[in-house]
Amino acid sequence: MDAPELESMYRRWLAEVWGEGRLDVAKELLADDLVDNNPYPGQPPGLEGHNWAVTMVRRAFPDLRFAADVVLSDGRFVAGRWTMTGTNTGTFDLFGLPPTGRPVTMTGQEIFRAGAGVFTEIWHQEDAPGMLRQLGLEPPPAIMRFAARRSARRYRRNRAAAR
Questions:
Q1: Domain range spanning residue 139?
Q2: CATH code at 113?
Q3: SS (H, E, C) 54-121
């Protein structure tokens, strides 16, 4: 694929999948065995896990909107940085938090690897601590440490399995 195609796929993924909740588009753009190198705690693997994350976040913020701030590609990888806005009117299952009714603005970024016309691997990072502060829900340090340790264990297991 060429760079403009990957950039277009990324923008579509961001706007239609995350912004509109269109999981049919996720099926079109992502490999069934998508490798997520930064899964959320409890996230299933592959496309199923990706769709689980979309559903969970959209349930917490039904009015989500995403703007692509930067999108760059070399034809094999595409990287993007975005800004999300939304109002927390639903339960945020990842943190076990009730709705606050507060608006948030959050940034994040991804790097996708592409192959055979779909995204096959993703690395991502979001400003979850900043989002929680805006919701008035300072995360207890122990919860954040637990999530980081769990993510590190998964990373080491995945690296060992890949060898």
A1: 3-162
A2: 3.10.450.50
A3: HHHHHHHCCCCEEEEEEEEECCCEEEEEEEEEEECCCCECCCCECCCCCEEEEEEEEEEEEECCEEEE
Q: Collapse the DSSP code of 41 into the 3-class scheme (helix H, G, I; strand E, B; otherwise coil) and give the result.
A: coil
Q: Which value, to the nearest 10 degrees, does the dihedral of the CA atoms of residues 153, 124, 138, 143 take? A: -10
65-73 β-sheet, strand order: 30-36, 118-126, 103-115, 77-87, 65-73
Q: pTM higher than 0.85 for the full model?
A: no
**For 82-137, what is each residue's pLDDT tens digit?**
999 999 999 887 777 789 999 999 999 999 999 999 999 999 999 988 998 899 87
3-class SS of residue 52: helix
What's the one-letter identity of residue 29? L
Model confidence over 36-79: pLDDT tens digits?
A: 999 988 899 999 999 999 999 999 999 999 999 999 999 999 99
Angstrom distance (rounded) from CA 105 to CA 15: 16
Into how many domains does the chain fold? 1
Q: Which residue has the tokens 């998964």?
A: 154
